[in-house]
Amino acid sequence: MSRTTSSASSVASKSNEEEAQPASNGVVRDEEAAIPQGEKQLQAGEENRYLVKFKENDPTNPRDWKFAYKVWITIQLGFLALAASTASSIIGPAGNTIAEYASVSREVSVLSVSLYILGFGFGPLCWAPISEIWGRRWSILPAFFILGLFSIGTAVSKNAASIFLTRFFAGLFGSAPVSNVSAALGDIWDPKVRGSAINFYGIMVVGGPTIGPVIGSALLVNPSLGWRWTEYITAIWVFATFALTVFCLPEVYSPVILKWKAQAMRKETGNDAYFHPHEQMKLDANSILTKHLSRPLRMLFTEPMVTCIAFYASFVYGILYLTIEVFPIVFEENRGFAPVVGSLPFLGLLVGIILFGTTINLANEPRYRRISLAAKGRPVPEARLPPMIAGSLIFPTGLFWFGWTAGPEYHWAIPTVAAMFIGGGFNLIFQQCINFLIDTYGLYAASAVSANTFLRSLMAAGLPLAAQPMFHNLGVGPASSILGAVAVAAIPAPLIFWRYGLALRKRSKFAPVLED
Q: Residues near 453 by Cβ (< 8 Å), separated by ≥ 6?
């Protein structure tokens, strides 16, 4: 991407840090929303340095780019997230084949999926600080390219150890777009309309695992292809997306753009007084330990809202990956369907994710904007909860429905429709959990979301390992009922936050609550 060097308004300041600025109403916004605007003049006698900022309607400000261009960027970011998330499940249908080839048990072969998801948990610890220092492109695109290389590594593997190891590192690098795309969307979209963009991103992230098994099954049954082509296709997809985005995706992180602008202005004018604080930011072990490791873990264990929301989001996320192992039991083993036909009910999950998630989540956006404006533009986390409450009812309904109509005596369409309820309930819960954490914790939202990402990856890595013994030994109905009972027990969670959320935020050390 070419670095923009057009003139910008500059201001004088002796501040060496600009992580966030108060909004016009006095509320400190989250990091993504903290884009410097306007001008301020130094008082007499202060250091004569010129802090480069965006001017009003600045063409170099990502928030001021044309709507169509921002949509194009959003589509590219969605493609990155879709490719990485699809790679997590595309190898799932090959479990039996891999078990036979690598001489391991069927349960052990599930590690080809679980270790990829485990990499999702550890990856953000690397990509988040890189994103904050060098920008979104450097934190996403190189790692995304390496995902393609490790996918090839899996495809040419000769034993179980190499398959599992390359899958873990594929997930580690594949987590870069999944974890950083939401921040990139925050860089270009105003908070009032960000919900629609995040909804699109959410569909890409959670839709990928539902289409992966369908693609994988089609490759597996083709005698000219086989299980290795699940990874070759992944690599081709990744490299094609990389080729598009490396030329078309601009840098969107404002501090990096302003750093470039300051460097260009010094070169153009010969005046070394032009600067931006981001030029002084360095990646060091201390910031990684305190900001990206210890703080998320501390919030996970000391903040009741983070703990509860993270466990709830992690549970439903784990169920999504559990279906990768459960659907073949229901539709292939019990009903005798061929692999491709037996994978088609995954599309029921996708339809539910799109249908319920899009309609209910987007329907809540105008309501949220009205409540936020009434609160002087401040984020109102409790206004995010109605879709989550709806999802908390839809999700267990789908689990019970699926479990007790999964038998071959029932028409295949009945549990497939139940899968729509599982997918729709999942999307409503999962997306609003993320939105709730971002609205609640402001500047510490990245740490809260990191805690959620880490826990959900552990849960999603572990549950598929338990699927085979659990559903074979207990039966599909009882096993689904146990999971449904857990989902029912979690129904009060959003209602409690609806009633006591403000009080909990006032007691928090990390959640900013300003009194009128």
A: 120, 121, 124, 179
Residue ranges per structural domain of the chain: 7-56, 64-268, 295-516
What is the CATH class of 64-268?
A: mainly alpha
> What's the token pair of residue 266?
């010094």
pLDDT tens string, the chain, 516 residues long: the values are 444 433 333 333 333 333 333 333 333 333 333 333 333 333 333 356 778 888 888 888 888 889 999 999 999 999 999 999 999 999 988 888 999 898 888 888 889 999 999 998 888 877 877 777 888 888 899 999 999 999 999 999 999 999 999 999 999 999 888 878 877 887 888 766 777 787 888 888 888 888 999 999 999 988 888 899 999 999 999 999 999 999 999 998 888 888 888 888 888 888 778 788 877 777 677 777 776 677 788 888 888 888 888 899 889 988 988 888 899 899 988 888 888 888 898 899 899 988 887 788 888 888 888 888 888 777 788 888 999 999 999 999 999 999 999 888 999 999 999 999 999 999 899 888 888 887 888 667 767 877 888 888 888 888 888 888 889 889 889 999 999 999 999 999 889 888 888 888 888 887 766 655
- Please enumerate in sequence order all residues whose Cβ is within 8 A of that of 316, keeping only pairs 6 or more positions apart, or say none: 395, 425, 426, 429, 430, 487
Residue type for 52, please? V
Task: Dihedral sign for Cα 404, 410, 413, 414, please.
Answer: negative
Q: Is the pTM of this model over 0.85?
A: no
Q: Is the distance from CB of 139 to CB of 180 less than 8 angstroms?
A: yes
Domain 295-516 has CATH 1.20.1250.20: yes
Backbone region of residue 410 per phi and psi (left: phi > 0; alpha: psi in -120 to 50; beta: other values): beta
Distance CA 349, CA 343 (A): 11
Radius of gyration (C-alpha) of the chain in whole angstroms: 24
Same fold, 64-268 and 295-516: yes
